[in-house]
């Protein structure tokens, strides 16, 4: 499956956030999006998902235009920046609701093996993030959108999530953004930088410095 997003124009009042955006992602590939604070990364993911309306947008899957919000096609899932599992839900209930086997999760993250019956709001911010990222990654959807999956995670958990992303990409198209650019660079097959409302396909990492996303000499 190849998904392409094109022709987006997003304004808030008369402030232009995105214009001249193009992104291509496909099954078996991880597509990274980088950009400084406020550059429009989250808005872009919400527009792809279909939860944020823009003035224009064109989404194509395998060359066919998708005219309704992508989430209505049942092909996409999305990890937002905020928590999406309600506070008062027990972990085992959350896994059941999203149809994700608990056993696989505790196999990968043993530290949770006694936590099946605890409520989501009894976990730390990083633990919640880890569980939500796992649930989104393991869903049976073909397109996965991840908005800052690494924030609040400790280094070992970041490595585990990266491994999981690499495993899942075999059957999914994964689009990911995070400020931990080194991890994005590490796992991405292609990288787009959002700058001045436009996406720029990065062919050489040095361009991240040229476009002043990183300060000069960072990559030396
Ligand atoms: N509902 C809204 N109303 C008005 N402006 C908004 C709204 N949502 C986002 N914006 C603005 O759009 C711009 C892009 O926001 P977005 O959240 O997409 O940035 P981002 O690249 O994800 O930033 P960060 O890395 O800091 O999370 C910002 O200037 C933000 O203030």
UniProtKB/TrEMBL annotation:
Gene3D superfamilies assigned to the protein according to its UniProt record, in alphabetical order: P-loop containing nucleotide triphosphate hydrolases
Alphabetical list of SUPFAM superfamilies matching this protein: P-loop containing nucleoside triphosphate hydrolases (SSF52540)
One matching Pfam family: ABC_tran
Sections of the chain in a coiled coil: none
Keyword flag ATP-binding: yes
Keywords: ATP-binding, Nucleotide-binding
Superkingdom of origin: Bacteria
Keyword ATP-binding carried by entry: yes
ABC transporter domain location: 3-219
Molecular function terms, GO-annotated: ATP binding; ATP hydrolysis activity
Name of the protein in its database record: ABC transporter ATP-binding protein
Source organism of the structure: Mariniflexile litorale
């Amino acid at each position: 499956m190849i998904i392409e997003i094109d022709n987006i124009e997003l304004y808030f009042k008369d402030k232009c956030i995105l214009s001249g955006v193009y992104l291509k992602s496909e099954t078996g590939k991880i597509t990274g999006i980088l950009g400084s604070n406020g550059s429009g990364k989250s808005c872009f993911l919400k527009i792809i998902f279909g939860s944020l309306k823009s003035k224009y947008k064109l989404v194509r899957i395998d060359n066919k235009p998708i005219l309704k919000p992508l989430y209505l096609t049942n092909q996409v899932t999305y990890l937002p920046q905020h928590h999406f599992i309600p506070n008062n839900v027990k972990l085992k209930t959350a896994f059941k609701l999203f149809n994700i086997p608990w056993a696989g999760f505790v196999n990968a993250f043993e530290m949770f093996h006694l936590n099946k019956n605890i409520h989501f709001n009894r976990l730390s911010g990083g633990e919640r993030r880890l569980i939500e990222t796992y649930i989104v990654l393991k869903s049976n959807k073909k397109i996965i959108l991840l908005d800052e999956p690494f924030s609040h995670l400790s280094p070992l958990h970041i490595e585990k999530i990266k491994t999981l992303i690499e495993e899942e990409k075999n059957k999914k198209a994964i689009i990911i953004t995070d400020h931990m650019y080194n991890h994005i660079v590490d796992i991405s097959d292609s990288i787009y930088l959002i700058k001045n409302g436009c996406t720029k396909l990065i062919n050489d990492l040095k361009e991240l410095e040229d476009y002043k996303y990183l300060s000069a000499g960072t990559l030396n």
